[in-house]
Each structure stands twice: as C-alpha cells, then as structure tokens.
C-alpha cells in the first residue's frame, strides 16, 4: 500500500508543471535583478542567465535598465549568469542561497533577503539587496573587469 502511495506522489511531482516565473516574492519567492550601470558610449553589455531547468536567454540591456526575474526558491535553487562587456567576460552564480543570494555573499540585515540586486559597473560587479524602504544596500562582489 505504501509503495503505491509513493509511486502516486512521485508521478504527481513529475507531471506538475514547473514555472519559475509564477511565484510571487514572499517567504519562498525570490527576485533577481541585473542592472546595467555601465558608462554611456561603451561596448554593449551582454549576458546569459540560466538554472538547471530554466534558460532565461541572452540579454542586451540598455544603460540604466534592469532585467529581472522571479522564482520559487528552495535551498537547492541555483541561477548563474555569464557576462560579456567588450573583450571582457565574467561568469558566476547569481543565486544559490536563500538568505544571502549567494553562499559566499556578505550577510545582510535583514539576513533573509528575497530581492537580490546585481549592479554591473565599469569597475566591477556589485551585489546587494533592496530593503523594505526600497533602499539599496550594496557592496563590490567581483573584481575589476
């Protein structure tokens, strides 16, 4: 009897549609923003982001524009991005930790953020979060280009 119940639960899990974009930002919902903060009259920023089961495609954001997505997160959720700017490139995880956006990120106050912000600038890539008053709290995460 238990064996059949396990099979049914497994089949329901397999056939349930996965839509990472339908989850609202809440206790289990997360939002990732990538802001092109590069100077005007510089090469076009290009990036590609994906997770194990969700390819977000290539993006070419204009200066001062933000590309964002939301998803239902769990302790095993991972999104990564590859960035190109002129002859420079950088790739890294943009989300793999429900409390700090990335496991090696600095702790934030509050320590459980649901809106991660990646700001791409000419001097490096910054990581931060939005607090309840929509203020940015940000620090330089990755080296100079």
Automatic annotation (TrEMBL):
Chief location category: secreted
GO biological process, one term: rejection of self pollen
Membrane-spanning residues: 67-85
Example of a GO cellular component annotation carried by this entry: extracellular region
Signal peptide: 1-22
Family, similarity comment: Belongs to the plant self-incompatibility (S1) protein family.
UniProt-recorded name of the protein: S-protein homolog
Lineage: Eukaryota, Viridiplantae, Streptophyta, Embryophyta, Tracheophyta
């Amino acid at each position: 009897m238990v064996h059949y119940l396990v099979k049914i639960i497994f089949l329901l899990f397999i056939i349930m549609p996965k839509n990472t974009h339908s989850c609202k930002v809440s206790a289990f919902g997360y939002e990732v923003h990538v802001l092109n903060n590069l100077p005007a009259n510089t090469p076009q920023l290009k990036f590609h982001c994906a997770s194990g089961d969700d390819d977000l495609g290539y993006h070419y954001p204009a200066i001062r524009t933000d590309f964002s997505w939301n998803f239902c997160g769990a302790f095993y959720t991972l999104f990564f991005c590859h960035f190109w700017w002129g002859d420079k490139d950088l790739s890294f995880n943009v989300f793999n930790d429900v409390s700090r956006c990335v496991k090696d990120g600095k702790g934030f106050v509050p320590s459980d953020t649901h809106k991660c912000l990646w700001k791409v600038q000419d001097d490096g890539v910054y990581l931060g979060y939005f607090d309840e008053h929509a203020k940015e709290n940000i620090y330089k995460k990755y080296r100079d280009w």
